[in-house]
């Protein structure tokens, strides 16, 4: 097969992913031309500073600070700048000029996705974004196409490598959160300001993207209930391990029936949860990512791999580019984003989850009955109770530790239960409340 | 979005997958129409016997024995009959009449793939086959599109659920091969004649399909080195477990340099091998499948899920149908199969693998030196030696068990080593030779 035409590719962003993409386009030119049936000509790389130091040497003559001019001459624009602006404006310019776009910009998609998809649809241009979730892991295309004839019931995703690294170290090395975070920062896995990762913002953006795709429904990052890992303690990790669980920061996208109205909706939430050790997600170590999908017909599927890294993520970008370029070559428009279902997004209070509640209680007769009574009052059904041996506090009071596992309960009922427990005379302290998923 | 036209879908085969596909097309008609932008009209189901008993009730008026006539009126033909003929003839008829085709027929693709892809390319029709490998697991599309800009180095696949179930039972329950097979047969996981599974034919077909896609090279099932699991013993499983390994039937597709000619080629082989317990594939239990892919940029990826089952596999078929129908709706031809690389397929003697060799040896001084000498003679480097305590045979001779782990060695060198070991006076028996992969 001989390349019979060429496609002009503009790259926006010369960071770790962008530089790798540029390198592959230049070094693997012939091989890519064979795969596409056309040559992919990198016509320029828009950067903020052409003199900045980069991990990969880029040809000086390709660098430019004039992104808008570069976009005007392109058939395909690859946006790897990140952030909302000017990325949003550039992508809209590209689409409106008829160019196809590949992006890995999760923040932008999770906030302005509908606007971008509408712009693409209007002119019949393509917008691909495999790199936005799970780095190198193919998850967008499987959801968008492979499962297009199935119905996704639930997604449990480990979609943030930094927090998985931290929680994995706490589990396997017994580190405190602070020590594990410091190690992650030393290794370059966490930023100096780690908030985007540890507070769950990054995972929430990815959850919004996954839920939108899986449920054919527009879900914005603002619809996502978000809790980070900063409150996770070494004691919680140890207690989870003791009961055969591991704590993971999960992005959960679930199709469910609103228990109040009976209407079908979706629940999208990010929080640390206990996962049984036997679950495939429990074996996802280090900074790896994995997305566990439960579909009506397909059953349980899992997609696993490197969730970040410039080289790894460049694989997803190039896969999008080649797929898109092939369609460009053979003509005809491609996929449009499906949002026909338009399901309501339910607040977290509508979701039903199992919980593990750890209490320091006064060690006296009748305590268990009192505690059980509080749960029963709020309609929260208790599945397991584990009581440790009593210990004496410095104040001379004798206390015991109770770990109570519940059946599925609603957020609101559990919150009310915990509030009442905290106020109860026999409870010295609510030591931990953690959800249990994947069981 | 409103369906603005319709696509006529013909189904060939009313078995467990076919019946599920038919049911979904009928029951989920509206939802599928929304996703595609056109209605999918099931115009008929070609079966051998319209009166046969089926797992799913199919409308009698859709059943026909006249497949050829059905094909003539179809926009899309779904072939789920299995076997070579008449499936091959029907698919060629469909493609030549301009219809797109979805198939799950691994046997046909692994033997006549190039003929079918050429026929599709000639008329600009599409041939999709996600269901042919890994049941519900999206693996064909990720290889074909997501990794289209990357370079696959190696695939290690658990692609046969029956043998994985048997080996998993032997590992976790201590069953013999015979008992595990009998249980699989009772559960309907293995056929009365289990040869296609236990002799590795099914896995070899899937290996050929994966290798063709991953390496852009035509690989036929005849190119695949194939060993089944019938020679795997409970003792081998126990010995593997002892050294932290689990035995899996692997489909291995590898890009490598011919050590003799220096030319790049591919090696495709199926055999039972020891996998370290820490490897993600070791955690694939029961009848599940998983495909572990190592790519140059993406690094290690794994795709996991149900490898068989009518309902599960119907998800892959419907995903293909919807993807294909969407392209049908928006116009323009789609993907053609890429075989531009055309790498030579190397015989197994060219591949380098690590081995674990278990020997019953005479217990006398100097035996280890003798054994080590035999390995050295053939240039096979020994990595580990483990010697068990000596035991006396009924004949009064004292023997010991030696387990020798090698570094990477070529098949031919190892075979010569084993032949010499078997003929050596100090070796009572070569108890086991197993390859080690994924380490």
From TrEMBL, chains A, B:
GO MF annotation terms: homoserine dehydrogenase activity; NADP binding
Top EC group: oxidoreductase
GO biological process, one term: methionine biosynthetic process
Catalytic reaction(s) noted: L-homoserine + NAD(+) = L-aspartate 4-semialdehyde + NADH + H(+); L-homoserine + NADP(+) = L-aspartate 4-semialdehyde + NADPH + H(+)
Binding site residues for L-homoserine: 191
Function: Catalyzes the conversion of L-aspartate-beta-semialdehyde (L-Asa) to L-homoserine (L-Hse), the third step in the biosynthesis of threonine and methionine from aspartate.
Protein name: Homoserine dehydrogenase
Source organism of the structure: Orlajensenia leifsoniae
């Amino acid at each position: 097969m001989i390349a019979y035409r060429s496609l002009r590719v503009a790259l926006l962003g010369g960071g770790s992913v962008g530089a790798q993409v540029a390198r592959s386009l230049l070094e693997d030119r012939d091989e890519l031309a064979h795969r596409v049936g056309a040559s992919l000509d990198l016509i320029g790389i828009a950067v903020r500073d052409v003199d900045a130091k980069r991990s990969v040497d880029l040809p000086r003559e390709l660098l430019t600070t004039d992104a808008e001019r570069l976009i005007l001459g392109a058939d395909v624009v690859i946006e790897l700048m990140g952030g909302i602006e000017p990325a949003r404006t550039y992508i809209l310019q590209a689409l409106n000029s008829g160019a196809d776009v590949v992006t890995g910009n999760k923040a932008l998609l999770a906030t302005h996705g509908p606007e971008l998809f509408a712009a693409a649809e209007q002119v019949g241009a393509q917008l691909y974004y495999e790199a936005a979730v799970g780095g190198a892991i193919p998850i967008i295309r499987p959801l968008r196409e492979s499962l297009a004839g199935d119905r996704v019931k639930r997604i449990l995703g480990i979609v943030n490598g930094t927090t998985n690294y931290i929680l994995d170290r706490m589990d396997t090395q017994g580190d405190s959160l602070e020590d594990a975070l410091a190690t992650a920062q030393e290794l370059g896995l966490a930023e100096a300001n780690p908030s985007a990762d540890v507070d769950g913002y990054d995972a929430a953006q990815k959850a919004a993207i996954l839920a939108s795709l899986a449920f054919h429904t527009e879900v914005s990052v603002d619809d996502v209930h978000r809790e980070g890992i900063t409150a996770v303690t070494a004691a919680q990790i140890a207690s989870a391990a003791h009961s055969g669980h591991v704590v993971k920061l999960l992005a959960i996208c679930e199709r469910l029936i609103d228990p109040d109205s009976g209407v079908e909706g979706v629940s999208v939430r990010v929080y640390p949860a206990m996962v049984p050790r036997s679950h495939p997600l429990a074996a996802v170590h280090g900074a790896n990512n994995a997305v566990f999908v439960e579909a009506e017909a397909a059953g349980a599927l899992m997609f696993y791999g490197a969730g970040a890294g410039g080289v790894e993520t460049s694989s997803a970008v190039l896969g999008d580019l080649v797929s898109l370029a092939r369609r460009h070559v053979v003509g005809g428009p491609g996929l449009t984003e499906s949002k026909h279902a338009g399901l309501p997004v339910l607040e977290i209070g509508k979701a039903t989850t199992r919980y593990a509640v750890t209490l320091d209680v006064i060690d006296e007769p009748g305590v268990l009955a009192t505690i059980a009574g509080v749960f029963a009052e709020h309609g929260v059904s208790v599945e397991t109770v584990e009581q440790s041996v009593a210990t004496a506090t410095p104040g001379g009071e004798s206390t015991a530790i109770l770990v109570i596992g519940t059946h599925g309960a609603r957020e609101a009922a559990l919150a009310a239960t915990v509030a009442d427990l905290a106020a109860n005379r026999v409870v010295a302290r609510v030591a931990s409340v953690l959800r249990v998923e994947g069981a």
